[in-house]
Amino acid sequence: MTEPIRRDPKSEIARLVDIMAQLRNPQTGCPWDIEQDFASIAPYTIEEAHEVADAIERQAWDELPGELGDLLLQVVFHAQMADEKGMFDFADCAAAISDKLVFRHPHVFGDESRDKSAAQQVKDWEAIKAVERAGKAERGTLDGVALGLPALTRAIKLQNRAARVGFDWPGPAQVLDKIAEETAELVEARDSLGPDALEEEFGDLLFVMANLARHLEIDPEQALRRANSKFTRRFRAIEAALAAEGRRPEDSDLAEMDRLWDQAKTAERAAE
């Protein structure tokens, strides 16, 4: 087995920063890169983060260095644009996260004891982050929860913040009751209200579903990703079964595809 090449992190980071500067050079750089700004690059930043998560989900370890590199490029790209405006540079980004990590780990870099449970560590972290928020003049309980987070993730964070000050359901049973209530309101909106009201009621139901996930200690994003993967596997099984007969899904009907779906589900469970 070939030994991996061990590169010097400092020189490779410096090389990447220099390449980005050259790409953004107004006289000799790439026209596309020169035209970009923070807003136009932001969607790519989100996309690259999702591609990293996808590679991890698929355990595609050979792809992961490239995907992480793509994500790192986004940091360098934003830092280069900021540097051009005299705002900050890549070194400032690295310093900011280094300072934050040291501040948030006094049990590693300070005098606090490491002899604590994971739950106590989370509690300590929240206290430290509260100090950070106070330094940013974030006064409200919900201040600082990023607007750009995936909606389900943001819902969990908002609910966690509210729960810390006592605004929370006692347990999953009460959340399930609320889900029944929101479901009834969604049915009513479907039958008697317009599209805006329907969307609002659907959002309320999703928000309560996220709350149920929180009470059950389930990551709703991960749960939905698993459901997506399950749907993909079983629908591909339908396609494969039909292809074996020289047909496609559009050549079938719902009753047959339902039967093939059940077969795929039974086969999966038998293989567990």
From TrEMBL:
CDD domains associated with the record: NTP-PPase_MazG_Cterm, NTP-PPase_MazG_Nterm
GO molecular function: nucleoside triphosphate diphosphatase activity
Every NTP pyrophosphohydrolase MazG-like domain range: 36-109, 174-234
EC number(s) from the headed UniProt entry: 3.6.1.9
Keywords: Hydrolase
Keyword Transport listed: no
InterPro entries (UniProt xref): MazG-like_dom (IPR004518), NTP-PPase_MazG-like_C (IPR048011), NTP-PPase_MazG-like_N (IPR048015), NTP_PyrPHydrolase_MazG (IPR011551)
NCBIfam families: mazG (TIGR00444), PRK09562.1 (NF007113)
Name of the molecule in the record: Nucleoside triphosphate pyrophosphohydrolase
